[in-house]
Fold this protein.
Amino acid sequence: MRSRFVFIVIMGALALGSAAWAHDYLGPQSCQGCHPDAFAAWKASPHARARESLSAVQQRDARCLACHSPNEAESKVAHVTCETCHGGGQYYSPRFVMKDAELARLLGLVDPSEKGCRTCHDASSPSLKPFDFVSKLKAIDHWTAERARRAGETKAP
Ligand code: HEC
Ligand code: HEC
Ligand code: HEC
Ligand code: HEC
């Protein structure tokens, strides 16, 4: 079952090319069950409401959506979500894939980088101060609780 799944997915990816399958987004609820702490922290962050900062007219303006809801047009997932930063989750979401760090990356999991933040937090965003990666990263922390929970689970009898 497992190897067959991996085989089919990898052959599919090769056949389609990476651009085509980069858009298999499942939405943030799909991550919630397995990553409840990350979800709760994200949900409380401005990224989870980014589309709502736009007026009704602006919500139809592709120029604004490019940063405030970039996966909406193609993947029907609104706001700046898990998959905007971590990559579309269709193929890496199954538990056995997620548990294998290398396989998960092969199947689309992206390591978010400072460069990724700067595709949106750039000179054209309205902030008066330049983007300070270290402090802004702290402001979206949703991994400390995740890692604590995971450490607790491994220690549990
Ligand atoms: C079926 C459960 C499940 C689902 C659904 C799931 N994950 Fe995971 N994820 C895991 C497990 C298990 C790990 C391994 C680490 C751990 O135990 O927390 C993991 C690890 C990760 C990691 C760390 C990977 C690494 O190697 O550094 C990230 C990032 C991640 N998941 C993001 C997501 C995102 C984004 C989604 C939704 C698109 C998602 N996950 C959906 C179970 C899941
Ligand atoms: C797809 C575009 C996009 C990416 C990528 C992105 N952001 Fe954002 N971010 C936004 C938007 C849009 C807002 C404003 C949300 C709103 O409407 O209030 C925002 C707001 C924030 C805020 C709150 C406002 C502020 O400036 O203090 C922080 C913190 C933040 N982002 C950190 C990050 C970090 C760190 C990264 C990279 C790991 C990142 N963002 C990646 C679009 C993005
Ligand atoms: C704005 C970009 C951004 C968004 C949105 C985002 N993440 Fe992350 N995520 C990151 C970054 C950056 C890190 C790594 C931080 C570090 O290691 O310093 C991370 C780390 C994680 C980790 C921990 C990985 C590990 O090594 O333990 C998990 C799990 C995770 N994210 C899941 C999610 C889920 C689920 C969502 C949505 C509910 C989400 N993320 C939304 C950027 C993002
Ligand atoms: C290049 C990416 C980018 C584009 C394009 C963009 N924004 Fe933003 N926007 C951001 C970021 C990042 C933030 C939050 C951080 C900051 O203040 O710089 C933000 C913040 C905002 C806020 C303030 C939200 C708050 O609660 O403080 C509003 C309003 C806003 N944008 C409206 C728009 C409108 C309207 C458009 C289209 C004309 C647009 N943005 C286009 C990146 C972008």
The chain has a mean pLDDT of 88. Residues 16 and 90 are 15 Å apart (CA to CA). Residues 53-54, 58, 61, 63-64, 66-68, 120-122, 124-127 surround heme C (ligand 4) (CB under 6 Å).
